[in-house]
Amino acid sequence: MADETTRLDELLAAARYSRQDIPDDLVGRILTDADRIQTDRYTGQRAVAKRREPGLWRHLLINLGGWPGLGGMAAACATGVWIGMFPPDILPDPSDLVYQTQGDGEFLGYYGLVDVLGEEG
Amino acid sequence: MASKGSIDRGGASAAEPVAEETLLRLYANGDAEAARELVGLLGPRAYSVALRVLGNRAEAEDVTQEAMLRLWRIAPEWQSGRAKVSTWLYRVVMNLCLDLRRRTQTLDLDGIPEPEDGSPAAMEQLLHVARVDALQDALMRLPVRQRQAVVLRHIEELSNPEIAGIMEIGVEAVESLTARGKRTLAAVLADRKDELGYQDGG
Predict the structure, then answer these.
(1) Transmembrane: is it a keyword of this entry (chain A) (predicted)?
(2) Which of A97, B44, B58, B68 is the most buried (most CB within 10 A)?
């Protein structure tokens, strides 16, 4: 039995050293598969990216200049509200601009609106 | 023959898993040359083991191509450190061989490699071919799981724990399969020792 085992070990060793090369056409087919899978993957990714068109809010955000633009607009709104509520002294009281007093209506003197329009033509 | 790539296939085994994983990641990131190097690194091993287990060139080619195809597909999801790429590939090859053998129970012994030119003498070369033929013939008589274990252990020279991982069994089961396989092989070859040019006592 020792002889058989030794012969078997020799044969297994011979098999190790007489490995057959992988056939060239098989290598070609494997590389073709690799290329196809790679191409499909990237084509698919591009298609998915193309399908993801921006929605209404995304469009709005883009047209406002993105998040920086939106932030600027929010700051401007807040500033406007603040100025409206607590106007500085150099500005006239906004309530006076809306509700005119009796005297303000007489800036045309004794001419009435009908007279002014009549002079035009 | 395709390029075998810049990775040293005969180098230290500790360096190979990193190279395999790196190449696979490069392939997943679109590097076409990485595929060529991976084929040079893993293709011959997958083909060799499939050929030994199946004993048929055409089937071994189909199995190798399918196993590599699965590798290309899994590349983007490959988890680093999960397993050696070569171990994963061996496992796929073995499972494909099992599936194929379950479907077709035919034996075809044309898969034996011819020895390369340069053997010292024609008669010795013929004897060598006959002996390697006889080994493959004997291998084909083993149950397929024994054959897989013997091929992985004694021809591919993998460790028992690695074979256990590939075959998804315990190390003890691997030892048992290889021991029984070798006993059967020795017995089959003993019956043919005269035709193979062996003499008692040597």
Answers:
(1) yes
(2) B68
